[in-house]
Amino acid sequence: MLFSDQNRRGLVSVFERCARASLLRSQDDLFEISSAPAASAAGGSLLIITTSSFAFRLLTIFHVDDNEANRGYFVPAGSGLSLQDSFAEVANLCCGALNREIAPCFPHLAMSIPCRLSARCLEHLPQLNPDYTAGFKININSAASIGVTLCMCCTAAVEIPMTLTAVQQSSGELEMF
Amino acid sequence: MGSITGGSLIARHTRKTRPADEVNRDVPSQRIEPGLKEDLLAQAGTLSQETAQLKSIAVAFERWHQDMISLSQQNREMHSQGDDLSSIVRQLIMLSLNAAIEAARAGDAARGFVVVAAEVRSLALRAQALSQDLSKSLHKNDLAATATFQDIQAGGKMMMAAISGLESKLGQLRGKID
After folding, report:
1. pTM, entire model
2. What is the 3-state secondary structure (H, E, C) of chain B?
């Protein structure tokens, strides 16, 4: 197995920390993350960012519905930006943070620019032969809501240290062991 | 691209290898023999040239990048054509349904036309299934092309960072030999 259960938990733990740090406008905002089916996007568009190393490529796929709650949270007031453009910046920050967190384990890690795709592409993720896929639903202040799918494709054994070991028991949050 | 001829250097280096702390303690008093120093400098120079040449891989990455952009553009055009086809097929299905209704109304006189209308409807439904399959295939292509495009993009940055790191280390090595 190129990506063990322990490494999967390590990746999820790092992702959760980066998502919490990057997606929230204020760290006082309520952040809830729960597991969801990896290919659960029904319609709309996806935003994809790839982090590559010599041993793997990790696709981080965001699914954000264009609705009032998401626009209200992610689009800065008076910016005139679309939700897609505003969220692309936030997603870039999230993946940049993820990149920095795992960079010490992998030399020459690099990240792509975000690309937009139809949500109907998500069902074809298995064709990339991923070693691991995981889906999440993130709710912020019980209003804004996004879906995220992590898709890890390895070409060699990948070790991601488990840096978050606390068992988080709060309602709606992932439990890390 | 020329090859690096470093076998003898590696052999000599291997013979001299000692634990790092021991080597570091001896550094101030260590002297490199004049012949060896020139040899090391020449080899470091060759490595620097090879590394500089490797940087031209950026041109290849840019070419792949452009090819992937063309591929994505073609996919978008095919999506648009697929949407047009799907729209035509939907109209064809409605038309064949209307034809069947009108033929049924006409009674025995249009018995032959009922058969034709049913055949047209059957063909339209097959075209609809094909159009849906085509759309699915295009979405599959979109994902594969985007994943490859992004991997190439990130891979290019990765390679350039690796080459820059190598250049920097070679510079340090030449400084130490000098």
Report:
1. 0.79
2. CCCCCCHHHHHHHHHHCCCHHHHHHHHHHCCCCHHHHHHHHHHHHHHHHHHHHHCCHHHHHHHHHHHHHHHHHHHHHHHHHHHHHHHHHHHHHHHHHHHHHHHHHHHHHHHHHHHHHHHHHHHHHHHHHHHHHHHHHHHHHHHHHHHHHHHHHHHHHHHHHHHHHHHHHHHHHHHHHC
What is the band of B16 on the pLDDT scale with cuts at 50, 70, 90? very low
Confirm or reject contact between A155 and chain B (CB < 8 A). Answer: no
* Residue at A159 is within a domain: no
Q: Look at residue A170 and tell me if it is in a domain.
A: no
In a domain, B87, yes or no: no
pLDDT in tens, A139-175: 999 999 999 999 999 999 888 876 543 333 333 343 3
Q: Is B19 part of any domain?
A: yes
ipTM of model: 0.85
The nearest CA of chain A is from the CA of B116 a distance in Å of 36
Chain B residues closer than 8 Å to A48 by CB = 146-147, 150
Best residue of A45, A48, A49, A52 to probe chain B, by most B CBs closer than 10 Å: A52
Interface membership of A43 toward B (CB under 8 Å): no
pLDDT band at B17 (very low <50, low <70, confident <90, very high): very low
Cβ-defined contact of A48 to B165 (cutoff 8 Å) = no
B136 contacts in chain A (CB < 8 Å) = 120
Structural domain contains residue B27 = yes
